[in-house]
Structure formats: C-alpha cells, structure tokens
Amino acid sequence: MSARRLWLWLVIAAGTAAAQTHSIQGPRLGWVFDEAAGALRPIVGIAGSSTMGDPLPLAVGLKRAVVSPTQDYALAVAGNDARVHLIRPRQNSNVLLKPLPDANRAPDRMVISPTGSAAAFYYYNGRGAGHIVVMNGFPQQPRISAQMSVLRVPAPTALAVADDGAVVLAGAGNLVIAATENAEIPVTSALGKVASLAFITGHDALIADGAKDEIYLLRLPHRLRSRHPATAAPRSSPMRKPARW
Questions:
Q1: What does the pLDDT read at residue 21?
Q2: Nearest 5 degrees, angle CA 94-CA 100-CA 103?
Q3: Would the pLDDT of 235 be above 70?
Q4: pLDDT exceeds 90 at position 157
Q5: Reading across the β-sheet that carries 39-46, which strands appear in turn?
Q6: Model confidence over 9-22: pLDDT tens digits?
Q7: Which residues are 198's β-sheet partners?
Q8: CA 73, CA 66: separation in Å to the nearest integer?
Q9: Distances from the Cα of 111 to the Cαs of 38, 98, 118, 135, 181, in angstroms?
C-alpha cells in the first residue's frame, strides 16, 4: 500500500470513528433538575449504576423546574422575567425551549399529573389566598382548562393535579383540600403533617403524613366532577402497611 493510500485510509477511518462516537449514547433513565447549576441533566446509565450527565444546552438559566413522570418534557421557570417554559429534550442533545404564554409568570408551585397530560400552577396573592391555573394537552398542545381559587390552604406545601385537570389537591400542616372550578372541599384535617400528595389513577390519590410516617389512600367520589361538588364527601383511609415517604 502506497503512503498516499495509507494516509487516505487513515483519514476516512478516523472520520468514521468520530461519527460513530457522536451517534452512540449510553442509556438514559430520565432527567433531573440540578438546582445548583440551574439546569436539567440527563440520568445516564442503568438502575443501580447511574450518574448525571452534562447539562442540557439552554440559552437561559432555570430557577425552578419539574420533570414529567413520562420523562418526555419538563416545565421550568427561567430567565430574569420568570416566564414558564416548556422544555422537550430530543435526540442528539437538541432541545425545544418554548415559553407558555397562557401561564402567568413566577408561579410559587408547579406540578405535573401522573401521565403528564396536565399541569397545575399555584400563585399566592400575598393576602391570604391563592389561585391555581390548570393546563391540559401536554406536551403537544398545552392550553388552560381550569382556574381555581384556594382560600383554606393559602400557602400549600404539597400539591397534586389529576390527569383530567378537574381536581387539584393542596395541603399544608394537617389539612388537605380538593379544589375544583366550583368548590374547595376539605379532605382531612386529622394529619400530623402533610408531606406529599400524589394522584395515582383517575381521582384516587395518596397522602403522605410525615409526622405519623403513614400513607393514606384517598378515593374522591365521581360527584366531584359535577357542577355541585359540595355534596360529595371524599373518603380517606390508611394503607395497611404504613411506609416512610
């Protein structure tokens, strides 16, 4: 083989290897918000052996972010104007960063439903009351589907939204309420201290009591979806095996 052919072969091989290096990526388990870096990072590896990858290349820093349980998008408060953005990571490190004009700026809390179809944004007005904006259609066509007032729990420490966006749970201290567009219904005031809230399927949800180390199963009646939800009486019962949250 002549020196010229050998040199040409080495150049082609190096280019092919480089292309393959950039196209092959390790398995990803999902995404996580790195508060210290103000960025989203991929969780690279496999269960039991994983690490955080490099931050997603975004043009703005993130102040807060929540990742959908489906791991295909995230919602973030970003920039000096604290706008809410929809972030959709794609292959080859490409990222779609899109402002949500229908969401008010600087929400105090953001939560996403179990299947990622709905999200709720909570805003405290500073005068002992709060306001919730619910959006459905994520991630393709998000739009406002409901707006709710919250008076009984003006500064919730836990929040959850159902997949249909019809019900939002809000909790603080020993109180949990179910909010709809038409009413604000007390669910329980017998907790030690609400630690977390999560819908699991339909309008069934879990309530974690951090003081008692118990998890309660909440079954909201179908009437909550009607025009007269105040007639409905939510039921909660402790799980058979209390668990730490």
A1: 35
A2: 150
A3: no
A4: yes
A5: 28-34, 39-46, 49-52
A6: 433 344 433 333 33
A7: 206
A8: 9
A9: 18, 18, 9, 11, 17
